[in-house]
């Protein structure tokens, strides 16, 4: 049985990155403690800076008693560079897309319902027609979880030579 996590979720934007960067790195370090030796995992600070530098960057962080327990962030996709681009036969009439780059919950707070709360808080109020995310194909339970949230797999992608192969998943944002 899942317990309800009593957390406060706060929203942040591109101008807040300097203030929240270390928080994101700390949560990541805890969430990936079992995989910290992997070179791709070690490049997370670069990804934070990359995504945080994108126009429209949005982040939500869950706090429990002033302890960051999870976060999600992303940014609007540049037209023509949506992750689903090469996987759909027909481009949607409204192709505006929000890319959910990260959704991370510290181990102690997993299976508490926090993940969907972070996801919904990140996408709440967005104007894009679509949401897209990727999930490691070696993590089928996560893919199933996202399918339960309304996503569907549209293809696979390996964006970097040392990255996992990801399932590209998308859903209507509204």
Automatic annotation (TrEMBL):
| Annotated ranges, domain N-acetyltransferase | 7-172
According to the UniProt entry, its GO molecular function terms are:
acyltransferase activity, transferring groups other than amino-acyl groups
Q: Which UniProt keywords apply?
A: Transferase
Source organism's superkingdom? Bacteria
Query: Does the keyword Cytoplasm belong to this entry?
Result: no
Q: Which InterPro entries match?
A: Acyl_CoA_acyltransferase (IPR016181), GNAT_dom (IPR000182)
Q: Which Pfam families match?
A: Acetyltransf_10
Q: Which PROSITE patterns match?
A: GNAT
Asked if Cell inner membrane is a keyword of the record, the answer is no
Q: What is this protein called?
A: Acetyltransferase
Q: Which organism is it from?
A: Streptomyces roseus
